């Protein structure tokens, strides 16, 4: 039945003029948009008004709750892991606010599995200049993230993890997320907080760690704004019964040496084999320790699972459970762009900072992300960083290799990199990877 109490133009006008939306107006607009009764252009206008005017804490809380209520909320608390003496699963997850080269979920989930945690992870696709976990994992031939609820339950109890497309969880976020991606309304605290937390509240985890990014490659580069985002998300999680913490982590340079889809899977495999770039290893281990603590698990040292191969075993089990070709993890069978191009050093010296945003945009232009809703990404698109900040460089050496299936994409990608890196006489100042830790403020 049509509700004549509300209409989209009035709701948009209230926010456009800097007003506060009532609980009832928020419930109505989220529900009506999810059911197709508010049009994309109306929601786009409202999102832009929210982007420009912001939201109060009470509005963010209600908007998030309405997005959770737009779909199902999973409950896995009845599940027991075989051989666990009937103890419930330690259901714990992490979510990143989005970064460049941020493949951390790929090694992290198996580390937590190997330490006895159970991870129900509703993951996302690329958004703006940042990559998406699902686009990366789907680069493994056969891997599917379209899992039914019964399949997720089965994987959680049998192997301890499932990484899946949100599907019927928070369907309002699915629609709004796609709209934000193409209407320049991504970089908004209320919209990021509600997007992340609606999925995480609905997915069935009992504890959550938020990796809140700070720096040029983050949606909110400014440290004070990122801290505010982290606090807002922690409060939202706790209000919905999740033990929630956040780390503020540096995203001014890309994480690791690989940015893209399959190239990030390949780098994650190096980490799972006990090697890989130190920043990726350190962040994986720090987030795992935080997750285990939040879940009340007094388990083994997460770093040990990378050394002793148990995390790699868990990753193979996860890939196999989701239809992926485990054989492709052992060989060079992961896709790589058919065309490549190399950026070389103009002089001897030391590699300076590499701007994360520019690298994210370059990789997006190579075809790793989307510029229209539903577009197919190139699994082989990506970039390898041969010299990290502070490393010595010789004139003529390769600094970056770009990969794509579409040669015409190489010029625009190289243009994004122009001015985004330097070779100088000294190393750039050291920046801590983990900037702060944020917990509930009561
Ligand atoms: N991750 C999400 O799920 N949503 C955002 O808005 C940003 C990162």
From TrEMBL:
SMART domains listed in its UniProt record: PYNP_C
InterPro entries: Glycosyl_Trfase_fam3, Glycosyl_Trfase_fam3_N_dom, Glycosyl_Trfase_fam3_N_dom_sf, Nuc_phospho_transferase, PYNP-like_C_sf, PYNP_C, Pyrmidine_PPas_bac/euk, Pyrmidine_PPase_CS
A UniProt-annotated Pfam family: Glycos_transf_3
Keywords, in A-Z order: Glycosyltransferase, Transferase
BP terms from Gene Ontology: pyrimidine nucleobase metabolic process; pyrimidine nucleoside metabolic process
CC terms in the record's Gene Ontology section: cytosol
SUPFAM superfamilies: Nucleoside phosphorylase/phosphoribosyltransferase catalytic domain, Nucleoside phosphorylase/phosphoribosyltransferase N-terminal domain, Pyrimidine nucleoside phosphorylase C-terminal domain
Gene3D superfamilies the UniProt entry points to: Nucleoside phosphorylase/phosphoribosyltransferase catalytic domain, Pyrimidine nucleoside phosphorylase-like, C-terminal domain, Transferase, Pyrimidine Nucleoside Phosphorylase, Chain C
Residue ranges of domain Pyrimidine nucleoside phosphorylase C-terminal in the record: 350-424
Domain of life: Bacteria
GO terms for MF: 1,4-alpha-oligoglucan phosphorylase activity; thymidine phosphorylase activity
Family classification: Belongs to the thymidine/pyrimidine-nucleoside phosphorylase family.
Record-given protein name: Thymidine phosphorylase
């Amino acid at each position: 039945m049509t509700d004549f109490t509300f209409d989209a133009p009035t709701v948009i006008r209230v926010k456009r003029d800097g007003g506060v939306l009532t609980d009832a107006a928020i419930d109505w607009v989220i529900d009506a948009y999810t059911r197709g009764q508010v049009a994309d252009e109306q929601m786009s206008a409202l999102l832009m008004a929210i982007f420009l005017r912001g939201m109060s804490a009470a509005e963010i809380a209600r908007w998030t709750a309405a997005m959770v209520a737009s779909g199902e909320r999973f409950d896995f608390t009845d599940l027991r892991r075989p051989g666990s003496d009937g103890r419930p699963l330690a259901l714990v997850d992490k979510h990143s606010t989005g970064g460049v080269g941020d493949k951390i979920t790929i090694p992290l989930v198996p580390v937590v599995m190997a330490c006895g945690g159970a991870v129900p992870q509703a993951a996302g696709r690329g958004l703006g200049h940042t990559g998406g976990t699902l686009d990366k994992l789907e680069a493994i031939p056969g891997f599917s993230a379209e899992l039914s609820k019964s399949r997720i339950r089965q994987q959680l109890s049998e192997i301890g993890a499932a990484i899946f497309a949100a599907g019927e969880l928070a369907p309002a976020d699915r629609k709004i997320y796609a709209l934000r991606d193409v209407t320049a309304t991504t970089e908004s605290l209320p919209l990021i907080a509600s997007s992340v937390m609606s999925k995480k509240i609905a997915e069935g985890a009992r504890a959550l760690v938020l990796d809140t990014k700070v720096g040029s490659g983050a949606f909110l580069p400014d440290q004070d704004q990122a801290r505010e985002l982290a606090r807002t998300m922690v409060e939202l999680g706790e209000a919905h019964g999740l033990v929630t913490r956040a780390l503020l982590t540096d995203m001014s340079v890309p994480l690791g040496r690989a940015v893209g889809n399959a190239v990030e899977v390949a780098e994650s495999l190096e980490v799972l084999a006990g090697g890989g770039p130190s920043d990726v290893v350190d962040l994986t281990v720090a987030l795992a320790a935080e997750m285990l603590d939040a879940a009340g698990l007094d388990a083994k040292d997460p770093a040990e699972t990378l050394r002793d191969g148990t995390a790699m075993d868990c990753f193979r089990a996860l890939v196999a459970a989701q239809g992926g070709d485990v054989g492709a993890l052992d060989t060079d069978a992961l896709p790589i762009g058919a065309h490549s191009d190399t950026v070389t050093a103009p002089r001897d010296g030391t590699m300076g900072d590499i701007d994360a945003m520019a690298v994210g945009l370059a990789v997006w232009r190579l075809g790793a992300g989307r510029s229209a809703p539903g577009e197919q990404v190139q699994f082989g698109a990506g970039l390898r960083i041969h010299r990290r900040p502070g490393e010595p460089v010789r004139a003529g050496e390769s600094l970056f290799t770009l990969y794509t299936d579409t040669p015409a994409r190489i010029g625009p990608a190289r243009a994004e990199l122009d001015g985004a890196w330097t070779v100088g006489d000294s190393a750039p100042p050291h920046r801590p990877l983990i900037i702060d830790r944020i917990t509930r403020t009561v």
